[in-house]
Design goal:
By secondary structure, the protein is an alpha+beta fold. It has a single domain, classed as DD-peptidase/beta-lactamase superfamily (Beta-lactamase, 3-Layer(aba) Sandwich), CATH 3.40.710. Helices cover 47% and strands 13% of the residues. The protein has 14 helices and twelve strands. The strands form four sheets. It has a five-stranded antiparallel β-sheet with strand order 3-2-11-10-9, sandwiched between helices. Strand 10 and strand 11 form a beta hairpin. Helix 7 packs across helix 11, helix 8 packs across helix 10 and helix 9 crosses helix 10. The chain is globular. The structure holds glutamine. Glutamine binds next to loops.
């Protein structure tokens, strides 16, 4: 399989997709990212990593971080977690309040904002320093020990995060947060601010393509059943209310973020991360989705 050749074809193929989306503009640090950025990194379970474009440039991973907080919570909380968060696709925007009200403060899944906020509460219950644990987990997984929060982004998230405050207050009012709203959101805003490159994120997710064992560390980070569940949740809830369209076009479990990144895996074969900041109306990277569709279609390698 010539992944290098396919990746090198992408910049020309993607030209027509640029200029058709919008870069997230709710905070200055995201608004000033050049719209034409594009990078991809693909790490084989048994083999090398392939790269193209701006694959080494760090970007704000935003909601892709929900994958890592959920991984940490699954290892610590067990079945109790699923009494507080559901596992159905939401069919609504990632920060929708209305569904949370109908469903009495139980978020549909851990990848919408309300679900991720409950996961932060669980981490605060189980870990003495959850921010550091999360950052160190990503450092270990990626092998890049200078990965960190972007404090400007974390501050801006807090200054503009009125809807997230509303979600957290509503969760608290329904008894689904144990800790103070401020403490829970401080963790949530920091997780959104983590900055990694495509290559770093591809290394940090390759264990999800390998039954939980990191081929880089030679160590099991999650159990096989945990990985099966995480990947299933990505397939059904990882790309917001566009998850059906995304599965139809790409055919891989994936998690996206409003920084323009998408992380996807083909179990048994590879992890792949794409970054391009212009978003479609659902909040998924427009060229990123097109790049993944091209990759799985041209190589014939998707879960289907
Ligand atoms: N910081 C964003 C928010 O909380 C993250 C959302 C996302 O990436 N979908 O609204």
């Amino acid at each position: 399989m010539d992944f290098d050749k396919t990746l090198q074809e992408l910049p020309a193929y993607l030209r027509e997709f640029f200029g058709k989306g919008t870069v997230a503009s709710y905070i200055p640090a995201l608004a000033r990212v050049p719209a034409q950025k594009f990078g991809m990194a693909l790490c084989r379970v048994a083999g090398p990593c392939h790269r193209v474009g701006d694959s080494e440039e760090r970007f704000s991973i935003q909601s892709i971080s929900k994958l890592f907080t959920l991984s940490l919570a699954m290892g610590r909380c067990g079945e109790e977690l699923w009494r507080r968060v559901g596992r159905e696709p939401s069919g609504n925007r990632f920060n929708s309040l209305v569904q949370l009200e109908y469903e009495r403060g139980i978020p549909r899944n851990p990848f919408i904002n309300a679900g991720a906020i409950v996961i932060c509460d669980i981490l605060l219950d189980h870990l003495p320093n959850p921010k550091e644990t999360l950052r160190d987990y990503l450092r270990l997984l990626s092998g890049s020990f200078d990965i960190d929060f972007d404090q400007e982004v974390a501050r801006s998230e807090a200054e503009t995060g009125f809807i997230n405050y509303a979600l957290a207050n509503f969760l608290k009012g329904n008894g689904n947060l144990h800790n103070a709203v401020e403490a829970v959101l401080d963790l949530y805003f920091h997780q959104c601010s983590l900055a990694l490159s495509c290559s770093e994120l591809a290394r940090a997710t390759v264990h999800l393509a390998n039954a939980g064992v990191s081929p880089l560390l030679g160590e099991a980070l999650l159990t096989g059943p945990q990985v099966k569940r995480l990947n299933s949740l990505m397939l059904t809830s990882g790309t917001y209310d566009a998850v059906g369209e995304f599965a139809y076009r790409v055919g891989l479990p994936a998690k996206s973020g409003v920084g323009g990144g998408i992380a996807a895996v083909l179990p048994g074969d590879y992890s792949v991360v794409v970054w391009s900041p212009e978003l479609d109306p659902s909040g998924n990277s427009l060229a990123g989705g097109a790049a993944l569709e091209y990759l799985t279609t041209v190589t014939g390698k998707s879960i289907f």
